[in-house]
Amino acid sequence: MSKEGKADSSVSWQSIRDTMMARIRAQDYAPGELIPNEVDLAAEFGCARATVNRALRDLATSGFLDRRRKAGTRVREAPRRKATLAIPLIRDDVIASGARYEYRLLERKLDTPPPLVREHLKLSGSERLLRVQSLHLADDVPHMFEDRWIVLDTVPDIEDVDLTETSANEWLVRQAHYTHGTMEFFAETAGARGQHLVCAPDDPVMTMIRVTWLEAAPITLVQQSYSPSHRMRLDL
Amino acid sequence: MSKEGKADSSVSWQSIRDTMMARIRAQDYAPGELIPNEVDLAAEFGCARATVNRALRDLATSGFLDRRRKAGTRVREAPRRKATLAIPLIRDDVIASGARYEYRLLERKLDTPPPLVREHLKLSGSERLLRVQSLHLADDVPHMFEDRWIVLDTVPDIEDVDLTETSANEWLVRQAHYTHGTMEFFAETAGARGQHLVCAPDDPVMTMIRVTWLEAAPITLVQQSYSPSHRMRLDL
DNA sequence: GAAATTAATATGTCTGCACATAATAATCCT
DNA sequence: AGGATTATTATGTGCAGACATATTAATTTC
């Protein structure tokens, strides 16, 4: 319709997203109810349907809208808000906090994994595994202790890497992009790791276990325990 | 590998994304280096530039590419992989695990916040605060203990809500969409909460503190402590 | 030679149009 | 009525062209 809207008057998808977000927040559109379809909204905003589509698609991925072909777009009653946790290179994490980063390789050897690790990695039994234990420090203070199992059949190149300089973490992030994986974290007592983290064995620490895969092949299982004082922070 | 595939008349942006992803993983494009520009890629794939743009934009938000106008698109040396943690409705979380969900309101009263809470919420001093403590159970077993402070000036409506039936969590998720917030979690000892979580005071528990805002106005600060056996799981 | 100006370029986005796809609604057929 | 078929509809995506914007590179000016 209005094609004089060329020079600068075109509407941005961000502005539409913001407007729609405001309406959702103000409950101009009732939770659970349908909102106008793209054609109508495009008419209202005086823009192309593609622009409205982009805006609504964004709100859908942010978890505020639910969209289905033919069924239309409706406001989620309980928005699916999500926090994104960047899988960090510990080095960057530490440096970003303004501290000096240091990495120490504690142990590196071919080893036989315990049943729990075998199970997590779905090992058949014939695989060769590299076990790497290391400590990451911030300003000379222990920050995180890492105990890692690497499946050499999946990433054979790492066997020749000097892990006293580069941490396995960094090498893998750069060289072995996983296709998927799982992560879990929980609180536990430091136990023997207290030695490395400089805390009592019964001090509570946060531990994260991550398993990553290259398609069907397991890459690595890593268990990282943070120093008791550590807090993981996220923005919402 | 070149797709002169005109037969099906059009190439999908997903297929381009997948092809490019495979090339990145195979290091056909060297880490840190520029990849061909959109026009060239569109020519190669035999599609419109917009389609390539969509594919590359997706890979950029997934953290594999770095894009800048004029500077071009380059492969990230250390991909910024991210895990998304959905802020859960505890109810859904518990039910999804196959357990029966139960919620118990332990305490609800107007109260004066301690300095730490005041600081987190950036309170001036005149605000009225509602304090709500509750317990969430899975199959009759304590799952999470919640201690919450709600700023009534920001969400006055909640003062009239019957919180014995609906948890503050659920009401707020539905009625008070925050604009931003912060979250942090860490391990600590259960302390007095052991009473509710049915564990020893020195058992390690994972605690999460979340503060949410409606623009400049604080909505709520909540501290949630999970039962010692709880593990937070995420897919990568 | 250094600083300021101008050109060049890759990505970012909008428009209009077309067709694809999934899901629902309507209709037909026994 | 009930099941199968067909139409309808809202979103999903593709295309070509155009202009916007952010940088970087080249050029001019002092």
Structure, described:
- Two copies of one chain form a homodimer.
- In chain A, strands 4-5-6-9-8-7 form a six-stranded antiparallel sheet. The first copy, chain A, has a two-stranded antiparallel sheet with strand order 1-2.
- With 236 residues, chain A is α+β, with helices and mostly antiparallel strands.
- Chain A has seven helices and ten strands.
- The first copy, chain A, has helices at residues 13-25, 38-45, 49-61, 90-96, 115-120, 168-175, 194-197; strands at residues 65-68, 72-75, 82-86, 101-110, 129-138, 141-151, 180-189, 204-214, 217-226, 232-235.
- Chain A is elongated.
- In chain A, helix 1 (13-25) crosses helix 3 (49-61) and helix 2 (38-45) packs across helix 3.
- The relative contact order of chain A is 0.11.
- The interface between A and B is large, with 48 and 48 residues.
- Strand 3 (82-86) of chain A pairs antiparallel with strand 3 of chain B.
- The first copy, chain A, binds a DNA duplex (30 and 30 nucleotides) through residues 3, 5-8, 10-13, 37-39, 47-51, 53-54, 56-57, 67-73.
Low-pLDDT stretches of chain A are 1-8
Oligomer state of the chains in this structure: homodimer
- Counting H and I runs of at least 4 residues, what is the number of helices of chain A? 7
So what's the overall shape of chain A?
Answer: elongated
Residue share in helices of chain A? Answer: 25-40%
Structural class of chain A: alpha+beta
Biggest interface, CB < 8 A: A-B, 48 and 48 residues
The biggest sheet of chain A amounts to:
6 strands, antiparallel
- The tally of beta strands of chain A, per DSSP, is 10
Q: Residue-averaged pLDDT of chain A, rounded? A: 91
Distance between the termini of chain A: 40 Å
Order of helices and strands of chain A: HHHEEEHEHEEHEHEEE
Strand content of chain A: 25-35%
Report the radius of gyration of chain A as a whole number of Å: 25 Å
Widest beta sheet: strand line-up of chain A: 4-5-6-9-8-7
